[in-house]
Amino acid sequence: MELQQLKTFMAVAEVNSFTKAAQLLDYAQSSISAQVRSLEDELGIKLFERIGRGICPTQEGKRLLIYAKQLIDLAAEAKESLMGDNLPQGTLTIGAPESLSIFKLPALLQAYKESYPKVKLILKLGKCCDIYGWIRDNTVDIGFMLSPPISAGDINMEKLSHEVMTLVASRSHPLANKGTCAPENLMGEDLIQIEEPDCCYRLIFEAQLREAGIQPGSVFEFGSVETTKKCVMSGLGISMLPQMTVEQEIAAGQLEDLGWTGSDFNIYTQMIYHKGKWLSPALTALIQLSREILIADLS
């Protein structure tokens, strides 16, 4: 039983004529007759009977008419719900590291919810390596991450903003009043690092120190940016962190920007999603809004 057969059956019942139904639906009369006959064969009943020169539904036909209308209306409702005016709806799962989740994404997510209230957003926190895996196994629909430009054959990666790295210390640290800080100034200094072996800015920072022949003192590792900042404020050591995560504390006089003179880290906030991912209206809207809100001058 197909919807088109039911629609044809309803048209015939409405005008009580195969000929008029054919004109109404712009079909050949033979097609109308064949569709009704196929429906009768499938159901094992007669749907119409001829009375004089006209036709009318049988008792069974009248019963089917009730269900046919319900089925056609339900099909139209389902189509409108799934396609409708193409407004974004459904659920989107987003993968991101802690730093972006706190300092970049709230404005984006708030704007998205205001524009598309029918979409449920789920934010999943993870490391960069986690997010790559989640994109590939479809655990998340889209990811945001901090990393240098890289090429991944199956993943679209789009740079949104260049992220400056800032070397910070407590206001009472001996290096706080020097104005600038070169790699050689860190010989024997205690460092506080993010406890992620694959953290891109940690790896780049450590590589710069190795290239300069610098051996730091103690190295403390903590699992979050917020804990790291608190420990730097207390004087436990120096840390290299994204500027966006420390600018409020620097402005408030809680941390000191040491003025790092080493090489630029070439790190960007990047938006990533799988090349094979279906870009639903909800996902398309998020991608576009991310470009509007998070993108910055990359020159």
Question: What's a concise summary of this model?
Answer:
By secondary structure, the chain is α/β, with parallel strands linked by helices.
Q: Provide the number of structural domains.
A: 3
* Beta strand count: 12
* Oligomeric state of shown chains: single chain
Strand content: 15-25%
Task: Spell out the CATH superfamily of the largest domain.
Answer: Periplasmic binding protein-like II
From the spread of the alpha carbons, the general shape counts as: rod-shaped
Q: How helical, in percent, are the residues?
A: 40-55%
- The stretches of 5 or more residues where confidence is low (pLDDT under 50) are none
- How much is the average pLDDT? 91
Order of helices and strands: HHHEEHEHHEHEEEEHEHEHEEH
CA(first)-CA(last) distance: 61 Å
CATH architectural grouping of the largest domain: 3-Layer(aba) Sandwich
Please give the order of strands in the largest beta sheet.
Answer: 4-3-5-12-6
What is the radius of gyration computed over CA atoms, rounded to a whole number of angstroms?
32 Å
Word description of this protein:
This protein has 299 residues and is α/β, with parallel strands linked by helices. Helices cover 43% and strands 21% of the residues. The chain has helices at 3-15, 18-25, 29-43, 59-82, 98-103, 105-115, 128-136, 200-211, 225-233, 243-251, 281-294, and strands spanning 48-51, 54-57, 90-96, 119-125, 142-147, 155-163, 165-169, 191-194, 219-222, 239-242, 256-257, 267-274. A 5-stranded mixed β-sheet has the order 4-3-5-12-6, sandwiched between helices. A 3-stranded antiparallel β-sheet has the order 10-7-11. A two-stranded antiparallel sheet has the order 1-2. β1 and β2 (54-57) form a beta hairpin.
